Amino acid sequence: MGERTDRRTWLKTTLLAGFGGSVAARCARPSTPAPVRLPPVRVARDRIIRTTVGLRPSRPSGFVLRAESHGEKTIIHNYGHGGSGMSLSWGTAHLAADLALETGATRFGVIGAGVIGLSTARLLQQRGRDVTIYARDLPPRTTSNMSAAWFGPTGASEAEHTTPAFEEVWHRATRLSHRHFQDYLGDEYGVRWVPYYSFSQNPPNPQGQQRGLGRLITDLYPETAQLEPSEHPFPAPYVRRRWTMRFEPPVYLNALMRDVRLAGARIVVREFADLDALLAPDEPALVNCTGLGARPLFGDAELHPVKGQLTVLLPQPEVDYMVVGGGLYMLSRRDGIVLGGTQQADDWSLEPSETEMDRVMSGHAQFFSAMA
Ligand SMILES: Cc1cc2nc3c(=O)[nH]c(=O)nc-3n(C[C@H](O)[C@H](O)[C@H](O)COP(=O)(O)OP(=O)(O)OC[C@H]3O[C@@H](n4cnc5c(N)ncnc54)[C@H](O)[C@@H]3O)c2cc1C
Prior knowledge:
This protein has helices spanning 7-15, 85-102, 115-126, 164-181, 249-262, 275-278, 294-298, 354-369, and strands at residues 48-58, 64-70, 73-79, 107-111, 130-135, 191-200, 225-227, 238-247, 266-269, 285-288, 304-313, 322-325, 328-333, 336-340, 344-345. It is of the alpha/beta class. It folds into two domains: 7-55 and 192-246 and 306-369, D-Amino Acid Oxidase, subunit A, domain 2 (D-Amino Acid Oxidase, Chain A, domain 2, 2-Layer Sandwich); 57-183 and 248-304, NAD(P)-binding Rossmann-like Domain (Rossmann fold, 3-Layer(aba) Sandwich), CATH 3.40.50. The strands form two sheets. Strands 1, 6, 7, 8, 11, 12, 13, 14 and 15 form a nine-stranded mixed β-sheet that branches. A hairpin with a 2-residue loop joins strand 12 and strand 13 (328-333). Flavin-adenine dinucleotide binds at residues 54, 56-57, 79, 81-87, 111-117, 134-137, 142-144, 146-150, 152, 271-272, 289-291, 293, 297, 308, 310, 340.
């Protein structure tokens, strides 16, 4: 456990120095009372069970979803979901499957076995198509396995590069995903609703309005409420509680792999060195779900890595909530307490950074030791 910190001192120092999330919207009061007692996370070095690194496939203008002809073949792109690929997976898979079916093909090659490839393959199967999945890496060795992961679709593009056209597609994909994931709730797939607390050092804006893409989906976060200090144990002046879906990538991706296999998918472990190699399989239509791999394959220079590192502590089953604020987050999963909040653009290294781990650990240690 980190050093004990007085709650008021913590508020004045750490919080004001930056442990505060985006401005929260003031929303209607909840009909049910907020929990007043929440167990803190025990943050200590000797509780660390692993550190993981993943490279988010980021594109400032958002994911690519379109069909492209290459001689007699069609390639449908579905890649570049940045920090929101888990959240958007079913949504863009639905839209990619629609494009795929327009080709009239009955056999498809899906390139990639991360969350995007597996979801797309599954939906094609559900529409009666025959699927072969080609991938260099299978779960558990995909970026998707390294995600946190909760339903947070707004990290798919950067505000200043988001066009109205993208916003529209993103909005459709987000709602499709949000609905589809609810068919996977439960332990078998590792999907469930959790209370999500977010912090700010600033009061919510008076109109209670959200900015950016988030403004379009406030209804997807039920029972949102701005809490009074007496209603929560956190050392923060402004706390909002809402509900979101949390995914457990190891459970979820294994279950998807099982599902596509049971439905007859062939899985071929193969790395494609270039576009010519990718066009070699005999399926007439391919769906490109290669994530960051699309950069070399298709010369997409906008696609770049944003490195993210997670420090995972021993599971604490009594901790059943998540917190986000000041660039840090904590998510409780059955396979551990996940501490995150690192984003290093254009860093291709898969080596964990000690500096980032220290920052994440000390920020969380101070925060949780100051809980009432
Ligand atoms: C620390 C961290 C936290 C995250 N948290 C969240 C979160 O809370 N919520 C959320 O929605 N998202 C989150 N994300 C983002 C999410 O993990 C990604 O957006 C998502 O995993 C991308 O999935 P993908 O299937 O496109 O890519 P990947 O999982 O990387 O899969 C790509 C597949 O393509 C294959 N491939 C690539 N190139 C080739 C090639 N040349 N030949 C053959 N196969 C190839 C790979 O082997 C792999 O099978 C997080 C990411 C990180 C790193």
